[in-house]
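Translate structure to sequence.
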């Protein structure tokens, strides 16, 4: 089994109850050999083996493309929505369903008199991707059976069994509960279905991490510095970073005895400590992190660039992918690879941070371009001066098909003791040697 196929065979095998592994491998490889796209091939395999052996699955087993299966869980939340499908107005019901392995979002296409708290067995459901998540779908072609409440106690559902620390809330969570302090908070007006609504946005923190939040409900009496406990908040994901959303199904209460918590406003709101690159690489996205390391590469695309005045995209020869020929705006950026000995991470710096690290203003860089009649002169100068430099960056990380990138909000040259750095490196090497015998 080659390295490309193996993880997909394992994923499909788990989804199908760890059966037919060899048959799954053979079927998937046959489809790929016929140049069938990977995701389409996986859907075909799932449908084939589901039909031959319909079985019950758990939330953790859900994979886009599955259909015809049975799943049992508790309705954690449900709301009615008005939508337009193929120019037709219809009512659907969306919410979240949980079992002992996790929680997933669902959409029910028909009114089946479901309520929050119901324990249900759903037969002939299917799965699609929606907003970068697997989502469960069912409707009139499905069979929905209500079960006794004690069939699946709340204590068996992870998200309902108690609060989590912020560092443990990830992109796979649908709902979350926690105890935090508000470290940033502001109000913003948004247009929603033709009316203006005021929402609350900000940053929450505990002793382990910080996360952004948005509240669609009033937070009366809550401000910066308030300690709160929340339950059943929705977890949204943007560029791999989870954010907390308070809605009608969320309970938010002030914490009266905050002095008993393992963190204070000052300790939770202080700047983050530097993380090893290896930990950043292990996550799909992280909020407000710091990385310190050596610049091992200044990547092409650094230096002077031009942007579209409408959408801010980088242009090529005054041509924007979305708006065609435009009168461009000059800008400067740096695309770096930072290495701290545990891994290498891509880092993006805007013009302000590029000026601080490069040591030259954008005006000076533009003059270099005019004098040499080449934009590459700034890139080459950056590469010559910055490769090997030791810098610190703070920002958010996200993962795409090219790897993990930190978009820096601040960057600087840190003070460090060379002897201490060498000693730390030797200590790390010694620990690895000892661990390997």
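Result:
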């Amino acid at each position: 089994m080659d390295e490309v196929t193996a993880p997909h065979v394992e994923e499909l095998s788990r989804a199908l109850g760890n059966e037919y592994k060899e048959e799954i491998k053979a079927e998937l490889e046959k489809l790929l050999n016929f140049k069938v796209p990977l995701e389409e091939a996986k859907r075909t395999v799932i449908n084939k083996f589901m039909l031959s052996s319909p079985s019950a699955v758990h939330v953790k087993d859900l994979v886009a493309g599955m259909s015809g299966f049975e799943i049992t869980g508790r309705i954690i939340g449900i709301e009615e929505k008005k939508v337009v499908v193929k120019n037709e107005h219809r009512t659907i019901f969306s919410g979240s369903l949980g079992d002992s392995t996790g929680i997933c979002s669902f959409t029910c296409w028909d009114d089946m008199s479901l309520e929050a708290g119901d324990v249900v067995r759903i037969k002939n459901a299917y799965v699609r991707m929606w907003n970068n998540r697997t989502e469960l779908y069912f409707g009139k072609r499905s069979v929905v059976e209500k079960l006794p409440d004690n069939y699946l106690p709340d204590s068996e559902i992870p998200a309902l069994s108690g609060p989590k620390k912020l560092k443990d809330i990830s992109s796979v969570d649908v709902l979350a509960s926690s105890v935090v302090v508000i470290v940033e908070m502001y109000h913003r007006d948004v247009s929603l279905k033709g009316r203006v609504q005021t929402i609350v946005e900000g940053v929450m923190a505990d002793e382990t991490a910080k996360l952004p939040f948005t509240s669609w409900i009033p937070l009366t009496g809550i401000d910066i510095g308030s300690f709160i406990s929340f339950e059943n908040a929705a977890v949204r994901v943007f560029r791999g970073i989870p954010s907390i959303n308070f809605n009608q199904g969320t309970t938010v209460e002030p914490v009266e005895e905050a002095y008993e918590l393992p963190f204070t406003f000052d300790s939770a709101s202080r700047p983050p400590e530097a993380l090893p690159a290896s930990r950043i690489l292990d996550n799909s996205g992280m909020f407000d992190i710091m990385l310190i390391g050596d610049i091992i590469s200044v990547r092409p695309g650094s230096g002077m660039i031009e942007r579209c005045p409408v959408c801010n995209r980088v242009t090529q020869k005054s041509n924007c992918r979305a708006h065609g020929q435009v009168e461009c705006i000059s800008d400067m950026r740096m695309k770096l690879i930072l290495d701290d000995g545990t891994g290498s991470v891509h880092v993006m710096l805007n013009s302000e941070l590029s000026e601080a690290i490069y040591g030259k203003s954008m005006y000076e860089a533009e003059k270099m371009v005019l004098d040499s009649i080449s934009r590459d002169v700034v890139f080459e100068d950056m590469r010559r001066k910055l490769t090997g430099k030791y810098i610190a960056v703070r920002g958010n990380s996200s993962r795409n098909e090219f790897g993990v990138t930190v978009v820096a909000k601040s960057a600087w040259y840190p003070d460090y003791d060379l002897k201490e750095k060498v000693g730390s490196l030797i200590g790390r090497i010694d620990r690895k040697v000892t661990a390997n015998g």
